[in-house]
Amino acid sequence: MDSQKVDLFMMINAKYFESHHLNAVREKLLSLDESKWGLVVTLQFKEPSTSLIVSLMGGQLGIDRFMIGDTGMGVGKLLTCGGFGVWAIIDWFLIMGATREKNMETFQNTFY
C-alpha cells in the first residue's frame, strides 16, 4: 500500500492503539494490497477516552467491559457490583489499555 495512505491512517488512528503496536500496524498496512484501502478506511475502533468516562460512571455495573466487547468480565463486574468496588477502581487505570488491546485485536482479525 502507498506509504502516504499508511501515514495518513497512522496519524488519524494512532490514539486507538498501544504505542508498542504502532510499528506492527504500520508494517501490516504497508504489506497490504491497494485494493484493501477501502476496508482499512471503514474500520471503526473504540475510543479509549470514552471507555474511561464510562468506567468512571458505570464501572460497577460492568458497562465499560460490555462496551469494549469483554462480556465475561462485564458479567463478573455486574454480578459482584464491580468486585465490591475494588475491581471498578482498578479498571479506572486499566480500561484505556484494554480498549487499545481490543482495537488491536479488531485490526488483526480483519487482516490476518
Automatic annotation (TrEMBL):
| One GO location term (cellular component) | membrane
Upper lineage: Bacteria, Pseudomonadati, Bacteroidota, Flavobacteriia, Flavobacteriales
UniProt keyword Membrane, yes or no: yes
Q: What protein name is recorded for this chain?
A: TM2 domain-containing protein
The TM2 domain, residue ranges: 46-93
Name the source organism. Answer: Flavobacterium rivulicola
Q: Which InterPro entries match?
A: TM2, TM2D1-3-like
Subcellular location(s) of the protein: Membrane
Record keywords, A-Z: Membrane, Transmembrane, Transmembrane helix
